[in-house]
User: Fold these one by one.
Assistant:
Number 1:
Amino acid sequence: MVALRRLGLKTAYAGRFGSDQEGMFGLKTLKDDDVNVDFAEIVEGARNQIAFITVDARSGERTIVWDRDERLAYKADEAPVEFGPLGRVLHLDAHDPRACVRLARAAREAGTIVSADIDNVYDGLSELLPLIDILIGSKEFPQRVTGITDERAGLVELRNRYGCALAGMTIGAAGAVVYCDGSFIESPGFEAPKGCRDTTGAGDAFRGGFLYGFLTGEDIETSLKLGNAVAAIKCSALGARTALPTRAELDEFLNSGPQIFTD
């Protein structure tokens, strides 16, 4: 949501924060970036979700260990269903899948497109996947769901089994590949300007850039390119949001003839 907001689109966030110092800080950072938080909740007495991230200084690759207070989870009947239809796209991370099902169903009934970023298989996920229009997961996700080791065959199976209009996966610094309208579209990643310092949040940044392209009328190939560009710029600084670009910064990067990532 911050990536899209910095690029100039209106965004809103629905989620729960703990009532501790970390929760107050997290909520404030969204407000500081002018993300609408009318549907954000403070859960009194709960600890905010927290992560410890180690970053390899040589490559920028990160390892995350995180913990989430169970009181922050949404039960199905607690889902803020009125939030789902408010925008042109509802983007979900698929935590609390049964609550997400209610949100996605309400969104689709109102004509809102549903997007999801999913890495793992959760209890109740099979109910959610048929409600997803744009499904871009991690490289490992298709196999985790379908059992198919061939990545592209896994994407085809996801599309056939659940009816997603677009099924895709990020492939790290190499970019992303999607299956749409019977064809594969692959988009290479870019080198981070001045080198990769931190990959934390790169996938989220990619999805922000991709959805920006989609929402501004670009074709799938261009949207993938924008996603890869936003992710590359993000990786140039420590932190998940520090270097997320404005539209002017994104244009400057693309006009500079950025280097395509190569192994």
Number 2:
Amino acid sequence: MVFAATYPERVSALVLYGGMARARWAPDYLFGDTEREERKSSEEELEEFVTPGGLEAMAHSGCPSADEEQVRAIARMLRYGASPGSFEALYRMNMAIDVRDVLPLVSASTMVVHQRADPWVRIEHGRYLAQHIPGAAYVELDGNEHLISAARVPELLAHVMPFLQEAVTREAPEPDKVLATVLFSDIVGSTARAAELGDARWRELLAAHHGRVRRQLARYRGVELDTAGDGFFARFDGPARAIRCALAIRDAVGELGLELRLGLHAGECEVLDRKIAGLAVAIGARVSARAAAGEVLVSQTVKDLVVGSGITFDDRGLAELKGVPGEWRLYCVASP
């Protein structure tokens, strides 16, 4: 879903089977797992993973109609696919993912397929996807599997293949909106520093600053969109790379004796002559303005999109962003 929203020109069609936008319960997502359910499920699945015969039981729960041979094959796949430690890490990562903000940005032809009694992913998850991805086709199969059995493959293909055949022959319009991560930076106390150094020395320092920022943008595949005075505005097609670039910029410029404030946001951006505009850009600028000296501050959306990257955050609480409706939860990047 994130790929389809980020690279619409590279996606002909999207089929989501047994999928979800988020796993955890929230006040506006009532069918997700509560903290208690998540903890119980995590403990049970990890115990199954390390117990003799446990993976066979897990395979059977995900595909009740599978025969003995199929159950053994699924269990073998699970056993070879991950160690107990990596399995637990993957489980926790999946529980933390939240791509609800991305769904309205998926412009590719999309089909959502879900089995009505899916034992691992409740049917409400599939219905939510279909309701929030623009124009999505929805197919609800009368079954009780998550891991699809051989017997159900013909039924699945009967829906999916005609959809794909039509989707790949349809000429896709030029995308005018994409999911992008925007980065804003500016030098803390630049006016006072310029007055202290004088024009000539300040210009030299500013040129060194610009050079270091641009080297990191090139390294992390960021695109420089604007430079106003001592600030940079850049876009990225991946939020994790944008965060790592922001940290690298902060450290590289810090060697010059300068402190930066940096802010990031990910969202819908309008594409205009290779430039981007829209509310997401304004939010990114406002997030940057809220950052303290030496701080990389990000929106909740960015945090949710980098689950599993190893990047950790400190919660900075809710904030009002000038000119932007509502309250926004912000996070400071705590580690690379």
Number 3:
Amino acid sequence: MRRIHRFPLSFVSAAIIFSSPLYASGLLLQEAVVANAGTVGAGDGVYTKSAAAMWTNPATMSHMGANKTTVNAMLFDLQMDYTDKQDNGDARGHTTMPSLGVFHAQQLNDKWHGGIAVGTAGGSSLDYGSEWAGSAPMTDIALTTLQVNPALSYQLNDQLSLGLGAQFSWASLEMGMRSGNLSLDESSGWAYGFNLGAMYHVNEQFDLGFSFRSKLDHDFSTSLTGQLGLSPSVSTDLSVPAIYDISARYAATDKLDVLTSVQLHRWSDWDQTMFEMGGQAAVVERDWDDVWKLAVALDYELSTDWRLKTGFSYETSPQDDPNYQWVDLPVGEQYRYSIGASTQVGGYTIDMFYEYADFGDVDMYHNRLVTVDGTFSGKMHFIGMNVTF
């Protein structure tokens, strides 16, 4: 195996390198598994009014009562624009997709709760077309993921609870490229991990939680098809980072809760992408840094039937060097803004939200077989509703 930076392999091999997954902290799509809609996930590790909180912190189940079920339904609209600095072709990728999550927590006895979460926690698809500067290695790319997360929580006393869960993650990847009208055939597979957490109910005014989700490693084995009539086997990998979360709730008044979360996404573990094709193996250096996500939100009781919510989050960039950015996944700093409202209808809690994500501008420069010298900019709209009963 040899490390490459200058792509001395064939152009087809270089194109495969560009096919690494469309997956970053901003596209983990935590919105699909958020517990408190309208707060950008701030405080999810201590939020007990939605069964979806078990995704962030399984220990929250101990504070959910006899049973609780939540269904999250969401629609997101993603747009990525590329502007070429050398007039070699601009591009726009756009997609609108639905997402769904289902969560249930059940009291087993005085000490134990059990639950299961099923959610689409990441993935998207983009088609840039064949007229832009980077179309030779990539015209379109699609990643679909689904996670199943059974969990248990144990209540040590009225204040402290612990939780543990298992992650079963399925992912599917496919891609097309203009060079030779090639396509990377769809490939899918499972990866496995775990999650754990603790929640401490200090008093009626303050809650504190800590949780951890382990890294997931997906391996894809597929083939490359196109005009040449050959179908060489191709394998590559996808790493989903470990996530550490510290969440807190502070009751500033009888009606106003201040929610906050600090997350660390261990993207530094994804320092390279490896692929094998036709007996050749290579490693491409990503050199990503860990990502910090800081979120803060307000949850206000307007009346006995309505609550109003708003939130903001900021994520650091995993890579700021234009020479290490890739057409498959241009990444930079990210900002999220959200508003929401919840109400009671019969025995149901209806939680509605809108969120806007600003991916900023990401410069990219490559002069290896194909020149890509330009700037990516992206934005994302989310609209959704969570129902808890």
Number 4:
Amino acid sequence: MTTGFAVTAGWDLPVADPSHVHAAVAMADAAAAHAGLTPADRAGCALIATELATNLARHARDGQLVASATEPGPAAWVQLAALDTGPGIPDVDAAMADGYSTANSLGGGLGACRRTAGVFDLYTAPGAGTTIIARIGPGSLTTPTTHVRVGGILSARPGERESGDAWGVLWRAGTITVVIMDGLGHGPEAAEAAANGLHELAVPAGADDPPALLGRLDRRLAGGRGAVAAVARMSSDEFTFSGIGNIGARLGPHGASAGRAAHSARTHGLVSSMGTLGLGQRLRPQAFVAPWREHSLFTAHTDGVRSSWDLSRYPGLTGHDPAVMAALIWRDAATRGDDAAVVVTAAATRPAAANKPAAAYWPAAGGRS
């Protein structure tokens, strides 16, 4: 069985005033239209955008709302991420009560967001601000494997209608393949190059190891704008990586509890080969192979994100949706002057109950997770 999705649209919006809520809803609706969501799911996106943006306007510091959307299809989804750098939420359970943080708005606050979304996750810790992600759509529950969870975030360069970055996932025969791409330059042509490359994921092929997939991408992009990309493939026990160009990537442990020094010592930067896909260059992608263990964590980002981020700053992050981790990397390290994509793949774990006071995870109501 083969399934997957491609995230090809994303925008971010600073939210500092109630007057920004209308723009947040319009951004969410554009994302829902891009993903081809049903009218009911589009209405859900509007409700969640209203609640999250209202909350940011009233309570946050440096609030941002980021909308990401896949291509249409059976695994389509829209993700809304609300980010801030405030003091954090002191009482998470109270904040989830209807009307707590967004009284007089349409849906009853964060509790309504949780009920509406296919996946809802909130991370907060003293001094670390608050990060919320909500996904909606038929593919909002995106990982049909037991050993891997994946999430990400995507935004366009300010002033651009399209992002030249993109990322996607393919599940096939017990493996998961993650691709992140950066089309050269900005705007529609860069967006077309990145999206065109991700369409290669849907093409049946005998060889789909990372170097071979990069070769297929190189041929597919011939004659166009060109792109850089990285590919990672994970099975239950093995990790393989290969890249072409300036994609930042790391492989390390899942969780910050080991402390910053230990975390840094065990994290490996993954090196891509030089070159650009699609420009007729003689490329030599190399494969890096390592074990994929219970606590493994793979991160990758385009050059719109600086390499200075550090997830070990955030206690209790283990077990949260990888999109929360990607959103924190984006918040801390995106240059804001370029397209930006971050994708995080984590070995499947669930949070300990003791983490809940500082950092809580909720799948949506109704048994979905």
